[in-house]
Structures are given as structure tokens and as C-alpha cells.
Amino acid sequence: MTLRVGGLTPLSTTDWPGMLAAVVFCQGCPWRCGYCHNPGLIPARGDNETPWEEVLAFLRRRQGLLDGVVFSGGEPTAQAGLLDAMREVRALGFKIGLHSGGMVPQRLAAVLPLVDWVGLDVKAPFADYPRVTGVAGSGERAHAGLLEVLASGVAHEVRTTVHPALLADAEVVGLAHDLAARGVKHYVIQAFRSQGCQDAALCQNATRERPLQDMGGELAGLFGGFSVRA
Prior knowledge:
Layout: E1 5-12, E2 21-26, H1 52-61, E3 68-73, H2 82-91, E4 95-100, H3 105-111, E5 117-121, H4 129-133, H5 138-152, E6 155-162, H6 169-182, E7 186-191, H7 200-204, H8 212-219, E8 225-229
Parallel strand pairs: 2-3, 3-4, 4-5, 5-6, 6-7, 7-8
Antiparallel strand pairs: 1-2
Organism: Thiobacillus denitrificans
Protein name: Ribonucleoside-triphosphate reductase
GO molecular function: 4 iron, 4 sulfur cluster binding; catalytic activity; metal ion binding
């Protein structure tokens, strides 16, 4: 199956830390996170999709100029065409990064041997996932996805977007301790940003109890690598 692409960023220095990468935004996501900043990528089909052959043609022109290609979304693992797309990109000589919520663990496991780095979103304590995603059973899927990434040995960071209406500070601290106990070595907490968010209540009610940097000071010692993205 051909990968459905909802957008393409020709050059990014932030989507894969330390790498010059193009970002392929995969169309479609089965979850409905209220703070999503790419809501146009949620439907299975988009209004302005880029044909996969055009993406490949662009990447051929960037051989030797880019370090890698990041598959982002949406949710890349929601598409059956992801594995073949990654194979084609790797055949062009690019390293491969992946942004995922871990929601399709079996497909995630299938593509991990082709992946050089994963940015894995862990959205909440696993028992509380439906509060964020709006989907029953999403926490079990996310937990399985995390286990696949940890078992793979692939370089990765785990990150959590923190909105005060969805995650209290105590919950973030508890989640961080849980992730450290599971073997997560690199963790990022990042502030909610209103850009693209279509939930008016979340945009208007984003006042924190205390700065994320203050909470980050409590968590840094749990991980080999830790940062706060404000």
C-alpha cells in the first residue's frame, strides 16, 4: 500500500535532535488528543495529500544534503504502507527517524529494525490514557508500544506533553518515576502549545501550578538524559 502523506517539511533541525532531516507527515491518527497541534492530519484522508512518488523525487534531490528522514504524523504506524516507505527511503541512503505514540505495537515492532531513532510520546499514566486520547484501551496499546521500543535497543527519547488540565504536576512526577523504573533513559517533558489546537477550553485554561522548569529539577536525576521544552 502507498503511504498517505499529509505534508512534507524539507528541512528541520528540531524533529530529530542533532540531525538535519526532512519530515514526512503521515496522514491519519485513530486517537483524538485534545491538544493535538496537527488536527488536519487526524482524518484517514487529507484535503492536500502529497503523492508518495513526489516525496521520493524530492528526497532523491536531497541525497548527500540531509542526514535523515523523520516519519511523523498523525500516527505513522497506523498505515500499512509505512514499512515499504521506510525501505525505499533507506535505499536512498538516509537514516530514518520515527515519531509515534506506540498505538499500533505490532506494526511498530515490524518497522523498528529499519529505524535509527524514535521519539515516543507517552501521554499520561497508562491507566489514564482515555482522558487524553478519548479512546478506550489506548493506554494498553501505548504501554505495549513502549515495551517494543525499549526491547529493540533503538536510540530514542520518550516525551510527554503537559497540559495542566489533563496532567497535574503530581501525575507527571509519578509518570516519570514509573518510566525510569521501566528502563527509560532519555525523557523530555514539554509544555502545551496552543498553535493548531482546536479545543478552546484547553487553549484558555493552560495556567500552570508552577513552571515546568521547577518540576524538571525534581526529575532530572531519574534519567541519563532529561530536558524540559518550554
